[in-house]
């Protein structure tokens, strides 16, 4: 490999160059796509609309009859998911009678001013439902 010299080398001088600005400045404007926002409803939105239509026709529905699909556990979970959106928005109310049965009823959603003022308070609940319960 050869002899090693232990003398320090002077640092190289750095040269900074100024970037030239191009004379022709182009403004980049991407083309806009028409109908970029899809107006088609998702499956969950369709399920929510169907469920609320059922509740408008039948003013008081047993929770099991509304949510439970005896053939498909996945569809039962989808129905429960859609119901959770209706409850969160204040569009339905779930009540428990003396026998312990849960009933779902439609109601008008509260006005935005009542929500912001704090006069309307949302309450949350936990609904445990698994495959064994479905069976």
From TrEMBL:
Classification via InterPro entries: Nse4/EID, Nse4_C
Residue ranges of every copy of the Non-structural maintenance of chromosome element 4 C-terminal domain listed in the record: 61-135
A single BP term in Gene Ontology: DNA repair
Residues covered by region (Disordered): 1-40
Pfam short name (any one): Nse4_C
Localisation per UniProt entry: Nucleus
Keywords attached to this entry: DNA damage, DNA recombination, DNA repair, Nucleus
Family listed: Belongs to the NSE4 family.
UniProt subunit comment: Component of the SMC5-SMC6 complex.
Role summary: Component of the SMC5-SMC6 complex, that promotes sister chromatid alignment after DNA damage and facilitates double-stranded DNA breaks (DSBs) repair via homologous recombination between sister chromatids.
Protein name (record): Non-structural maintenance of chromosomes element 4
Native organism: Helianthus annuus
């Amino acid at each position: 490999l050869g002899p090693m010299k232990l003398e320090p080398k002077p640092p190289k001088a750095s040269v900074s160059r100024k970037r030239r600005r191009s004379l022709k400045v182009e403004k980049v404007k991407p083309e806009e796509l028409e109908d970029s926002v899809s107006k088609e409803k998702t499956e969950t939105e369709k399920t929510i609309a169907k469920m609320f239509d059922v509740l408008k026709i039948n003013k008081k529905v047993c929770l099991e009859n509304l949510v439970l699909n005896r053939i498909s556990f996945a569809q039962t979970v989808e129905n429960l998911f859609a119901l959770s959106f209706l409850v969160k928005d204040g569009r339905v109310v779930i009540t428990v009678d003396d026998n312990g049965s849960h009933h779902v009823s439609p109601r008008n959603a509260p006005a935005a001013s009542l929500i912001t003022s704090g006069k309307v308070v949302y309450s949350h609940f936990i609904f445990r439902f698994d495959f064994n319960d479905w069976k």
